Amino acid sequence: MAFDVKKVVTDRTSDGTSVFADETRVEPSSVMAMPGSELFNIWGTGDGTPFVGAGDNPATVPFPFFPGPGGTRFVIVRFAPESTPPADAGPEEVVAEAEEKQPGLVHVFEPDTPGMHTTDSIDYGICVDGEIWLELDDGAEVHVTPGTCVVQQGIRHAWHNRSDRHCTMVYVLVGAERKSG
């Protein structure tokens, strides 16, 4: 099934009039590190306090993939089934290609525990199609289906699509500072 993503961005002119600043299709990105999956980088704000104004709103900051403190990212991920064959490439090539296409994506993943990762962010996610399993570091899992909203608070986790079709998740990532202790 084709998944067509359209982005509509609003802004204000210098005299304060609301306008449509952008209305475009968003092309998916794919990386060998996630075979068969698609990533749609919709929008992002720089780290720190975001601002809005009269005609001087900043452009999108989609990378690095995971924002720093105060930054945000708006992404759609279409997870392919886990049965999708892996890329026919070595680990160095997979990482290099991911860093080129989706800077900052793969460095959070644990090489010895496939799929497991931890981010310094609060992630709001909603399943809009398909199904997926969310696994935590102790092996606990929850089945995520359309309409399920997930709030992740900087935890170690992995996503597993054990079905035979794509699962589409929509995320807003908010960069946070990690407390130690």
TrEMBL record:
Tell me which InterPro entries the record gives. Answer: OryJ/VirC-like, RmlC-like_jellyroll, RmlC_Cupin_sf
Q: What is this protein called?
A: Cupin domain-containing protein
The protein's organism comes out as: Pseudonocardia broussonetiae
